[in-house]
Specification:
It comes from Citrus sinensis. This protein has about 375 residues and is of the alpha/beta class. It has helices at about 1-25, 95-110, 150-165, 170-175, 185-195, 200-205, 205-225, 245-250, 260-280, 290-300, 350-360, 375-379, and strands at about 50-55, 130, 180-185, 230-235, 285-290, 310-315, 315-320, 325, 340, 370. Helix 2 crosses helix 11 (about 350-360) and helix 7 packs parallel to helix 9 (about 260-280). The protein is globular, with a radius of gyration of 20 Å.
Length: about 375
């Protein structure tokens, strides 16, 4: 009965939005007749109808808030929402891809802030949905109680079914092919698996074998999204994980662990190869890769020229480098957070996120390959 009720409400909202747009001489739920998205969502003409986001805590904007897990950030001093309450974002403001997609890219694309799947309802889903979940990876560990990538894809299919039921398969299919699908995932497959001292994974696979395993599964999952209608993909690579404060604290180091940095390099190399293969073998697909590792390497080498002064300690955390225990509820963070590269043990500050977002949108092939997000959206 509850499902029927919400289905009726959802249908009513869609009908009302249709009527409103028709009264204003618009063609259905978006520009140029697109059934996904709407006009002037973020202040300008839409370059794409909608944006769908998949990933982990670097992108999660609240999907874990009601899960029985410690992998959540719905408390101060983490990001606050427009009503002054905690958002569930793992940052001192917007997460990396919210900054990139809302403050920078989303506004340029003409889209509003993308809602979390757990909170999206009615016409909100027409601009896109964020399915990301903190602690998520490609290999699901049940005790983490998060939403793994396979389940995030199923959640997207639920959204797609809802929209299709109300708007028709043909129109939705045409619009979905123009939407951007962002995926940022993989760090937890190392941090919460391969690098865990009580896990046997490192004894079963060397670095290349593990990367091969992960990217083979990644290719399958992306092909599933393609079969659901996705055509424009933005994939974020892994960063310089040996430089994050959690690793500095775990290995008791004052500088980056090159052992950890070298460990994840095969993953990024495999993803680039996978992108080339998918672009060649999936008709109509366009995959692009954001080289987060290169961005971080440049940042850590030239941090002062970018306005930062602290690269080896966190703004909010406890223990060595502030990286042994992540930011606790109501803990007082640093006063000069704009000078820090890292907000907590795992995540960059808002200032870093804004910088990376702009590079992903406008950057050349040294940091985003084979095209940047602006170019992808224009296709």
């Amino acid at each position: 009965m509850v499902n029927i009720f919400f289905r009726i409400i959802f249908s009513f909202l869609l009908v009302m939005l249709l009527l409103l747009l028709l009264m204003n001489d618009k063609v259905a739920l978006g520009q140029d007749g697109d059934p996904v998205g709407s006009t002037q969502g973020g202040g300008g003409r839409e370059m794409v109808p909608a944006l769908f986001i998949f990933g982990d805590s670097l992108i999660d904007n609240g999907n874990n808030n009601n899960l029985p897990t410690f992998a959540k950030a719905n408390y101060y001093p983490y990001g606050i929402n427009f009503n002054g309450g905690p958002t569930g974002r793992f940052s001192n403001g917007y997460t990396c891809w919210e900054n990139m997609l809302f403050k920078n890219i989303s506004e340029l694309l003409g889209l509003p802030l993308i809602p979390a799947y757990s909170e999206a309802s009615g016409a909100q889903v027409l601009h896109g949905v964020n399915y990301a979940s903190a602690a998520a990876g490609r290999h699901h560990r049940k005790k983490l109680r998060c939403i793994p990538f396979d389940q995030q894809i199923r959640n997207f299919q639920n959204t797609l079914d809802q929209v299709t039921d109300n708007l028709g398969a043909s129109d939705v299919s045409n619009a979905i092919a123009r939407c951007i699908f962002f995926v940022g995932m993989g760090s937890n497959d190392y941090l919460n698996n391969y690098l865990m001292p009580n896990y046997n994974t490192k004894n079963q696979y060397n670095a290349q074998q593990y990367a091969d395993l992960l990217v083979s599964e990644y290719s399958r999952q992306l092909t599933t999204l393609y079969n659901l209608g996705a055509r424009k993909f933005v994939l974020a690579g892994l960063g310089r994980m040996g430089c994050i404060p959690r690793i500095l604290a775990q290995y008791q180091m004052d500088r980056c662990s090159e052992e950890v940095n070298q460990l994840v390099m095969p993953f990024n190399a495999n993803v680039k190869t996978m992108i080339n293969n998918l672009n060649a073998n999936l008709p109509g697909a366009r995959f692009t890769f954001i080289d987060i590792a290169r961005m971080f390497e440049d940042l850590l080498t030239n941090y002062r020229s970018y306005g930062f002064s602290v690269i080896d300690r966190v703004c909010c955390g406890i223990g060595r480098n502030g990286g042994q225990i992540t930011c606790l509820p109501f803990q007082t963070p640093c006063a000069n957070r704009e000078q820090y590269v890292f907000w907590d043990a795992f995540h960059p500050t808002e200032a870093v996120n804004i910088m990376f977002g702009r590079k992903a949108f406008y950057g050349d092939q040294s940091v985003v390959y084979p095209m940047n997000i602006q170019q992808l959206a224009s296709l």
